[in-house]
Amino acid sequence: MGMEIGRFPSVHPVVRIIFFLIFSLFLALGNLVQLAVAALLLFVFYLMAGFGCLVNALPMLRRMRWFFLSIVVVYAWLTPGRALWGESALMHWWMPTVEGVLLGGHRLLALMMMVLAVQWLLWATTRTQLVSALYWLLTPLTMIGFSRERFVVRVTLILTALEGVQQYIGEQLKKNTLRRGDLRGYAAVAAALVSDVLLRGEQEHCQMIEVDIEAAPPLLQWLWPLALIGTMSLLA
User: Per-residue pLDDT for the chain (236 aa), expressed as one digit of tens each?
Assistant: First the structure.
């Protein structure tokens, strides 16, 4: 089996993953200036990727809308500070605070950009490249007896099985007409799906797994994550 060629083949998948990890760390801990630079980088990446990558990212953001809303509510109403508007004690009791709105907006922006970064990484990196990069990154753990071969085989099996399971679940949901709000119907279908998936797993035959491992990243490409660390550190 030959190595799949992903998008942006000139950038090694190991470098992409390390760049993403550093990028996510600065998103989680960064200030507004660092977030602005991160947003500019994401804009450039998506501009290079094209419209298709953005179309794939929007449904993921939409599915997380309630989680994003809960983040804003928790920060806005549970963070001590000055009332957003109104000075009376009664209004101050139930109004969101200025500090909470600012912190909630900061966290919301960081989380949304992290989701976009994950989507871009998955779009630009094939499954084979992702597994190969994990194999390379786990090399230090072999000194304590960790078997990276077993790990990547298990990851490959899981990713392969997920495709079939998702397709099977989609087919079964189309066959069962469920009304909105019918919790019992959804619970019954979910229980049947779990049983069917477990049964299919027990009946699955053994198969040979072959994982292609790429060579180490070129030395010059390590300048990309180092440049990101240097730039974000200067803006701290």
Answer: 344 445 666 788 899 999 999 999 999 888 889 999 999 999 998 888 877 788 888 888 888 889 999 998 888 888 887 777 766 555 556 778 888 889 999 999 999 999 999 999 988 888 888 888 888 888 888 889 888 888 888 888 777 777 777 777 777 667 776 666 667 777 777 777 777 777 776 777 766 767 677 778 888 999 999 999 999 999 87
Backbone torsions φ then ψ of 108, nearest 5 degrees: -65, -45
Determine how many CB atoms are found less than 10 A away from the CB of residue 76: 21
Closest CA to 126 of 1, 38, 24, 229: 1
DSSP string of 2-51, one letter each residue: PPP--SSTTS-HHHHHHHHHHHHHHHHH--HHHHHHHHHHHHHHHHHH-H
At position 77, the amino acid (one-letter code) is W
